[in-house]
TrEMBL record:
Record key words, sorted: Leucine-rich repeat, Membrane, Repeat, Signal, Transmembrane, Transmembrane helix
Gene Ontology cellular-component terms listed: plasma membrane
Keyword DNA damage: no
Annotated signal sequence range: 1-18
Protein name listed in UniProt: Trophoblast glycoprotein
InterPro entries: Cys-rich_flank_reg_C, Leu-rich_rpt, Leu-rich_rpt_typical-subtyp, LRR_dom_sf, LRRNT, Wnt_signaling_inhibitor
Phylogenetic classification of the source organism: Eukaryota, Metazoa, Chordata, Craniata, Vertebrata
TM spans (from-to): 300-320
Organism of origin: Acipenser ruthenus
All residue ranges annotated as the LRRNT domain in the record: 20-54
Length: 363
């Protein structure tokens, strides 16, 4: 009797023991952690304890996640879904995770991301890892829509590295007012367009290993607006032509680019491996001196005078030979007329056999 009462009381004061642990997982109530790691499960296991705060589903074969995947797990603050085969994130997938702070979706193959995947009303995510998470560069459009509508007002760190991203859709970061760390390393970005970083106050921006050839003046102004930002840009194929001048001047005037001394020209060949810090002192042939510009204008004016003079002489020669030209034109006209009459006569003979016999008898 006493033993039974003890079991009942112990159960009442230890509700966590009522939560069973899925067979493919390891559960620790003390650490409030559940690990279902490298178990080759194809979906989020059912029956994950409600006390869970740290949920690791790393290294499995999960291909799709939806709102039913995390139902009843409102206390989860850290969720790792890295190294799976996730291709689809359904609508309101993370809506039940009101306390989620860290989300790791790295090393997946996301091709479909519903615009309402995240909880727009109560999104508390601060760290979002999407490194090597996109199936291809076209998935960035879906991600941009989800970012704009997902209520990421608390997001401070975003990792988009190694996704073969070719361009950044307009407004993809517009709602990320709290963002401080942005990793765009090892993509295929060629141009940073105006307003890409508008409204952001970053502390760290990683643009290494992309395809950036230069940064234009409007993008430089946006970066200047971030007082605390530290930028990394090495291993980009910078082209040292006229378009690099504003960027080279900016590099020499700012301390925001921490690896500025490692930025070098890739093209043209004669400037290969030349430091961008020295590019502003190079003779790129982009500007003309005032004397050169005056000389060029003078050359154009002289060419115009010469062509006009030649035209006048040509017209004068035609005027002096107007009678001969008229006679030559009349002779040419008569000759053409005789030739045409001959062709016409032959055509009449060939088309009417009787005329051919008559002409033969006359002979």
């Amino acid at each position: 009797m006493y033993a039974f009462a003890f079991v009942v009381l112990f159960s009442l004061f230890s509700p966590g023991l009522c939560d069973s642990c899925p067979s493919s997982c390891e559960c620790s109530e003390a650490a409030r952690t559940v690990k279902c790691v490298f178990k080759d499960v194809t979906e989020v296991p059912a029956g994950i304890p409600s006390y869970t705060r740290n949920l690791y589903l790393t290294g499995n074969s999960i291909s799709r996640i939806g709102p039913a995947s995390f139902r009843g797990l409102g206390d989860v603050t850290k969720l790792s879904l890295s190294n799976n085969r996730i291709t689809v994130i359904e609508s309101h997938t993370f809506a039940a995770l009101h306390n989620l702070r860290v989300l790791d979706l790295s090393n997946n193959g996301l091709s479909v991301i519903h615009p309402d995947s995240f909880n727009s009303e109560n999104n508390s995510i601060r760290d979002l890892n999407l490194s090597r998470a996109l199936y291809n560069h076209s998935a960035i459009g879906d991600l941009a829509a989800a970012m704009r509508r997902g209520g990421f007002g608390n997001l401070r760190k975003l990792d988009l590295s190694e996704n073969e991203i070719v361009y950044l859709p307009i407004g993809i970061f517009s709602s990320l007012t709290a963002l401080r760390h942005l990793d765009l390393r090892n993509n295929s970005l060629m141009v940073i367009k105006n307003s890409t970083f508008a409204g952001l106050d970053l502390e760290a921006l990683d643009l290494r290993l992309n395809a950036i050839q230069t940064l234009r003046a409007d993008s430089l102004r946006e970066l200047d607006g971030m007082e605390r930002v530290q930028i990394q840009m090495r291993d980009n194929p910078f082209v040292c032509n006229c378009g690099i001048e504003d960027f080279a001047d900016w590099l020499n005037a700012t301390a925001k680019v921490v690896d500025a001394d490692r930025l070098v020209c890739v093209l043209p060949k004669e400037l290969h491996n030349t430091s961008l810090l020295a590019a502003r002192d190079l003779e790129l042939g982009c500007h003309y001196s005032e004397s050169a510009e005056i000389a060029l204008q003078t050359s154009y004016a002289f060419l115009g005078v010469v062509l006009g003079f030649v035209g006048v002489i040509f017209l004068f020669v035609l005027y002096l030979n107007r009678k001969g030209i008229k006679k030559w034109a009349n002779e040419l006209r008569d000759a053409c007329r005789e030739v045409m009459e001959g062709y016409h006569y032959r055509y009449e003979i060939e088309s009417d056999p009787r005329l051919g016999q008559l002409s033969t008898s006359d002979l």
